[in-house]
Amino acid sequence: MTNAKQVKTALKIKASDRQMSKLLNELDINYKKVKTQPFITEKHKSRRILFAKNHLKYDWTKTLFVDEASIWTYCQPEFCL
Fold first, then answer.
1. How many domains, the chain?
2. Separation of alpha carbons 43 and 28, rounded Å
3. Burial status of residue 4 (CB atoms within 10 A of its CB: 0-12, 13-18, 19 or more)
4. Rounded CA gap, 81 and 78, in Å?
5. 8 A C-beta contact, residue 3 and residue 31
6. Which tens digit of pLDDT belongs to each residue from 9-30?
């Protein structure tokens, strides 16, 4: 549930949306409207395309791709399994 109106409907409470919103705020149950924005801006898109074009013939075999993982080149005893 994302807002007071949905909470009211789900719980079948007879109250105005504003009353529900006030009640939820009093109970420290707050929500914020999510800002809608494009996943990628036109600037980002054009810069990605430029990067791709500039690196078409790049030798990617010497590149290590990681997914935000930590890579340890040594192991301290207290952190090793």
1. 1
2. 39
3. buried
4. 8
5. yes
6. 888 888 887 887 788 888 887 7
